Amino acid sequence: MKKRFNILMSFRFQVAVAMVLMTVFVMGISSFLISEYSLKNQFEQLRGRLATMAQIVALMVDADTILRIPMDKSGIDTAQYKATEASLLKIRKIIPGISYIYLLKKTDKKDVLQFIVDLPPAENNPDELPPANPGNAYDASRFPKLVEGFSRPTADDKLATDEWGVFLSGYAPVRDSDGRAVAVLGMDIAAKDIYILQNEVRKRAAMLLAFGIIISLILGVIISGRVAKPLGELVKGIRHISSGDMDYKVRVRGAAEIAELGWSFNRMSKRLAVAKRTLLNYFYRVVQSLIRALEAKDAYTKGHSDRVAGYSEKIGEVMGMPKERLELLREAALLHDIGKLGIQEIILNKKSRLTSAERKDIEKHPVIGAEILESVSPDKEMLAVVRGHHEHYDGSGYPDGLKGDDIDILAAIVSVADSYDAMTSHRAYRANLSDAEALDQLKKNSGTQFNPEIVDAFLRIMKVK
């Protein structure tokens, strides 16, 4: 059951379902287009036949006879009208499907025509309008093909709707013996069924299109959401990894394949984090070895970094720091003088007091140390310790003149531990201070050179009141 659920939730299955639905949609659209094309083709054929029939019937109308019909109601009673009407009625009986036949001629007004003959409807219908009388005006502006019928046989290119109903009409000119078009013959066939069919096809097409758009949008949102969000999370993870944050984990979610990609990414980042920590530890050990070797050249400074690390760790414990912070504090304390690798040994091992220029060189070691570590260590606080362990609480230190809480707390701890060890260590140019004297100096400079809170913690370690 679980395996079946996993298959149903897989990205591959979802894409397959989407493709099937899209195929059904495309087939539906194709079917509609074929139906629409077939309907349009049949419609064009019907137009052609209707225009041809109108031309044939127009040739049977005598132009001289219809021109003698008076253009008023009395024209209905004339022999010319009755003869033309009888001829057209015979034609309508011969050609089934014709609902109306009529003759119109032009007037002086544009697109306004006059009825000459208008046959009654083929079927008696009480709702039908009565036939028009000779001379009745008709506005042909809605039907450009009707006006075009004075010059050549034609038919409406769309279904016409007027007060007589829904029809498809064909037109042809009635010409006199000189070939002039004196009237136009119109033939209407009932097109209600065609009209309904066209509307039904278009309605179904609109519904199919709307349904397809909705389904496509829903599937697009679902699938893109299930793909884009996890991929966005992976991109975010890659940015974290590239910036050095190897411990970052992506939130695994989405389809089975996407989730597997997330799991693989997390496994990769974990291995990279382990590999980087291993390399960093190796680097730290190498650097610590170099520092110890440097300190070993001077009996007075031998073991200085180890002692500073020990004092710093004890201060952190008294201040209630968690284990992870204590480990970082110890590592940073061991490396706090790494910058001295970039200072000339002749200056470091000088037995007499340093000159002003030599002291300036010595004071560069925090910056040099931070630059050495910056290329390999992503931990900004470790860099802050190495760079800031000679900053003073009142801002008189170096290299950046930071003061108060602007100084990293770990750097401030190392500053106290470093100063205490320096004061209690013998130098060639001065004697060391006793523990009590060194602690007095710490208390004396608390609030100026040193952070008072850290001095108090160190005094508790040394059990000094």
- The CATH C-level name of the largest domain is Alpha Beta
Major sheet details: 7 strands, antiparallel
Proportion of strand residues: 5-15%
Mean pLDDT: 78
Low-confidence stretches: 1-5
Counting H and I runs of at least 4 residues, what is the number of helices?
A: 16
The fold-level CATH name of the largest domain is Beta-Lactamase
CATH architecture of the largest domain: 2-Layer Sandwich
Shape: rod-shaped
How many domain units?
2
Q: Name the helicity range.
A: 55-70%
User: How far apart are the first and last residues' alpha carbons, in Å?
Assistant: 72 Å
Tell me the structural class.
alpha+beta
Radius of gyration: 51 Å
Q: Which homologous superfamily in CATH is the superfamily of the largest domain?
A: PAS domain
Count the E strands: 7
Multimeric organization: single chain
The H-and-E topology, N to C, reads as HHHHEEEHEEEEHHHHHHHHHHH
Describe the structure.
The chain is 58% helix and 10% strand. It is of the alpha+beta class. The chain is built from 16 helices and seven strands. It is rod-shaped, with a radius of gyration of 51 Å. The chain has two domains: 11-190, Beta-Lactamase; 297-461, Hypothetical protein af1432, CATH 1.10.3210.
